[in-house]
Recover the amino acids of this structure.
């Protein structure tokens, strides 16, 4: 299938990208692994695609008690990132390894996945459990949003039309922490029917789930009270049960990993 | 309005005029007559259009041709050197790695990416790497054997 007519512009720096995005029906493209499929189906028909893939903004580094992930870091780069080897951060690579297929992981980016905001995408659950924030930039300046505040609904974020993710910030977990991601995938699409990420620290535990609600969300209390959606693939009750199972698996794996973390 | 894009395809610089929406697979097949990248599914799932972009396997149906400006694209036509089949191509012949052959260019280029990462991958690693390449004939056994054989060759 061929996308609807569109113009293409390659941004050479962040300011130029933001300027180009002033066009109301423009869309930023990075790896394109979410955007191009919906353009081919003509669900998305941007008048202009602004290619931000060459703006740098990639790689993983730890500084001042925080882990910074460039939004243009690909899944494949996350899998191989030295800075994420600690058991406390293991959920990131574990999750990235299971996303899409090899070709998708070579191009798809973590920032693109977050702002695409598919309600069943895996990584937002990990970022929620790890307490991540997004660094954002627009012509009005910079601001930060927690991932929880950024995800508003299915395919909907709190970002403005002229706003881009410039940083993904994760507070470095205390020594003796562990994290994990577990999911049950739809066999054809590979998206999570239910996925869960867990972070266990000396101070407590956090679990976030994806694939079961309007957005991935942090678990507060019992899943019985959570609003779960059902569809032709899996009923709400089945998804609720599956969410319990994967949350349990992620928690156990995260607890196990705390033993090797220092 | 078509605009010029320059790609380095199989080691050769090629320029062509394309629209903003032109997918890399269409630029290769219709613009450069390199029809080895196949269009199987149109929904980014089958991997028959897989090519190497700077050595990494990507689906050429899920990338705008303009995004590949200045980058190295390797298609199945570029694998054989000096009339000699690439080791993967030879192994697919020897191990019966294909039947109808439609998925084969994509499978071989994905395997080339996998093997470029070093080591000799296990059958499980090979099958995981092939998740984005659908073959409806072989049941994958011959494909896995072919890739394993090349991976095991020092």
């Amino acid at each position: 299938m061929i996308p609807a007519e569109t113009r293409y512009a390659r941004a050479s720096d962040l300011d130029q990208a933001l300027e180009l995005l002033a066009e109301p029906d423009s869309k930023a493209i990075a790896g394109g692994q979410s955007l191009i499929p919906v353009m081919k189906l003509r669900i998305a028909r941007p008048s202009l695609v602004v290619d931000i893939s060459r703006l740098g903004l990639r790689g993983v580094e730890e500084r001042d008690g925080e882990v910074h992930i460039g939004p243009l870091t690909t899944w494949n780069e996350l899998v191989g990132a030295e800075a994420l080897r600690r058991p406390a951060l293991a959920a990131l690579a574990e999750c990235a390894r299971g996303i899409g297929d090899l070709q998708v992981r070579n191009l798809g980016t973590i920032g693109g996945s977050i702002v695409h905001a598919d309600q069943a995408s895996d990584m937002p659950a990990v970022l929620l459990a790890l307490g991540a924030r997004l660094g954002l930039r627009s012509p009005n300046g910079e601001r930060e949003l927690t991932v929880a505040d950024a995800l508003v609904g299915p395919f909907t974020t709190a970002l403005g039309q002229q706003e881009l993710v410039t940083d993904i910030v994760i507070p470095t977990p205390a020594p003796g922490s562990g994290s994990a991601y577990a999911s049950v995938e739809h066999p054809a699409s590979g998206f999570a029917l239910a996925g869960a990420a867990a972070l266990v620290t000396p101070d407590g535990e956090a679990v976030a789930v994806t694939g079961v609600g309007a957005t991935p969300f942090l678990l507060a209390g019992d899943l019985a009270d959570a609003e779960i959606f059902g569809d032709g693939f899996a009923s709400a009750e089945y998804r609720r049960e599956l969410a319990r199972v994967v949350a349990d698996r992620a928690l156990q794996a995260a607890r196990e990993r705390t033993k090797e973390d220092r | 309005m078509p605009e010029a894009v320059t790609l380095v395809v199989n080691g050769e610089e090629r320029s062509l005029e394309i629209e903003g929406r032109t997918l890399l697979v269409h630029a290769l097949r219709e613009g450069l007559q390199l029809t080895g990248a196949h269009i199987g599914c149109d929904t980014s799932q089958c991997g028959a259009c897989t090519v190497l972009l700077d050595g990494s396997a990507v689906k050429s149906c899920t990338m705008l041709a303009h995004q590949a400006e200045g980058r190295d694209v390797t298609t199945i036509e570029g694998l054989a050197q000096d009339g000699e089949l690439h080791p993967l191509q030879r192994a697919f012949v020897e191990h019966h790695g294909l039947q109808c052959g439609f998925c084969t260019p994509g499978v071989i280029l994905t395997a080339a990416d996998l093997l470029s990462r070093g080591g000799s991958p296990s059958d499980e690693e090979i099958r995981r790497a092939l998740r984005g390449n659908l073959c409806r004939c072989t049941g994958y056994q011959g494909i896995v054997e072919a890739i394993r054989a090349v991976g095991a060759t020092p």
In short: Strands of chain B lie at 3-9, 12-18, 50-53, 56-59, 72-74. The CA atoms of residues 51 and 75 of chain B lie 5 Å apart. Chain B is about 30% helix and 15% strand.
